[in-house]
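Appendix B, Record 12. Input sequence as logged:
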Amino acid sequence: LINYLGIDLYAIYSVIFIIPLLVVSIGSLGIGQSIIYHVKRNTNRQNGIMLWMCVLFWAILSFVYCSVLFLSADFIFEYLNKGDITVEYDAMILSWLIIPVLILRKYLISFLRGYYKINQVVIIESMVQPVLKVVFIAIIYIYDLGLYYIILTLIVVELIAIILTVIQLNREVAICMNVGKEAANFKRVMAFALKSHTGTIFQKLNVDL
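Logged structural output:
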């Protein structure tokens, strides 16, 4: 990738993905780990409603993050271009589209991990995604499509991973008709996630200090 883009474009590629990766890392709120813990405890696999609650929460969260970023786009663009690197505005905006995709994949794959479907997780994350990236980047290299198509490739590969994960989950997740029980479980998932995620952040801050 660095040989194709060159030093300058690869530097731009690295810079524009700092914000998406930072938002996903902090903004996922640790819900993925909490989902794994909850699903492992709920052996009857009746997590269908909770899954949809997580998806609804993801939609709200993604809307908030993207709205804040798009409203701050001009300020962020000026900040990123203060140094020697010239970041293109459209490339920066396009890279932000990966934020909701990554967070959703993180949540969905956590359900598979909770069901101990390690083989499926490994196939999706360690085989399908890397192979698709290599194939798409090879096509981009051959036709010299440029940075925008590389960003699109990352988004498309993540979307394919989400589709494969949903197909696997469709075989595993059962729906509990007790909505109140599932809502209570979702609250516990959120509380556990926020507590552990906040603790992790403070721990990292203490280590840095």
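The radius of gyration is 19 Å.
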